[in-house]
Design goal:
about 20% strand, alpha/beta, five-stranded mixed beta sheet, single chain, about 130 residues
Length: about 130
């Protein structure tokens, strides 16, 4: 006596549905975490800069071609940027003006911007020196 086997003609999609639901839940949990705060930058128009206003209370930092930071003709090490910005922000609450020389690297400017933002400076401007 030979037993006949039934052929399996149906596809069970339950495991596939379970995987899709798990992936959907993971994406729903992770999606709000991906919202990173960036910089709000406004592209300036090309206009002639007039004499600066004497009453402005800006922190003015020069980023040199050698990626050194200068405040009032005094060099500041990259390790002391945070403390310098905190001290200067008390006296100059209007924000930070970053002046860059022609060959200053992008990394040096971004580091200065990050330190300023992390120490409570909300208004940051960039100018060519």
């Amino acid at each position: 006596m030979r037993s006949e086997r039934k052929t399996f003609n149906e596809i069970n999609i339950t495991p596939l549905t379970d995987i899709f639901l798990v992936l959907l839940i993971i994406m729903m949990v992770i999606a709000p975490l991906l919202d990173q705060q960036g910089l709000n930058l406004a592209v300036p128009n090309m206009i002639e800069v007039q004499d600066e206003i004497k009453d402005s209370k800006l922190i003015k930092v020069l980023v040199t071609n050698e990626d050194k930071y200068m405040l009032n003709d005094t060099e500041i090490s990259s390790d002391n940027l945070a403390s310098m910005i905190t001290e200067q922000a008390k006296e100059n609450p209007d924000g930070l003006l970053i002046m860059t020389q022609d060959n200053a690297t992008h990394g040096a400017v971004v580091k200065l911007m990050d330190e300023a933002r992390n120490n409570g400076v909300t208004n940051i401007s960039i100018s060519e020196y």
